[in-house]
């Protein structure tokens, strides 16, 4: 049986890497500086996919935009400083990347994380083969769920978008993959509960654990 796709693309935070602990740690440090009680780790984890401003707003009021922007920038600076303190590849997923490497299948990353933070974070990781493409939230003038970042990733991998599988843990990831004409996989071990994955039924595949992804890849890529 021929493989159903020729490229695998991953969202970054909550899909490929578990970055939630370092987001929580950075916010804790900022709260400590301001003598505030930090939100719980679980609250931060459930907010990571919404971006730095949303995480900052868990502890600081956005009512004063100028002051809030200073707090957001301070949070991001602390996050960058401690970006790889606790972050790791989701357990069980590395074997899937090894399998893709063994079968010479390109893989890549499409994230809404800014390029500066993405490149800094990825510099700490050595994958079986480096990603063929890394498209960030500011690579283009638009970002997910717009299809252009997805199309650029497919182009850089030399694969027709229809032959790409995109994996993500947020409704916009499924939307982005669908908008680009890609196959989609909903990741339920990330930062969004199944209840909040509002378009879950539209995903081509559902993965409840990283091991499910590896099992799927080893079965389909031969």
TrEMBL record:
GO terms for molecular function: metal ion binding; phosphoglycolate phosphatase activity. The keyword Glycoprotein does not apply. Transmembrane segments: none annotated. GO terms for biological process: DNA repair. Its EC number is 3.1.3.18. It is an enzyme of class 3 (hydrolase). Keywords: Carbohydrate metabolism, Hydrolase, Magnesium, Metal-binding. This is HAD-superfamily hydrolase, subfamily IA, variant 1. It comes from the Bacteria. Pfam families: HAD_2. One of its GO terms (cellular component) is cytosol.
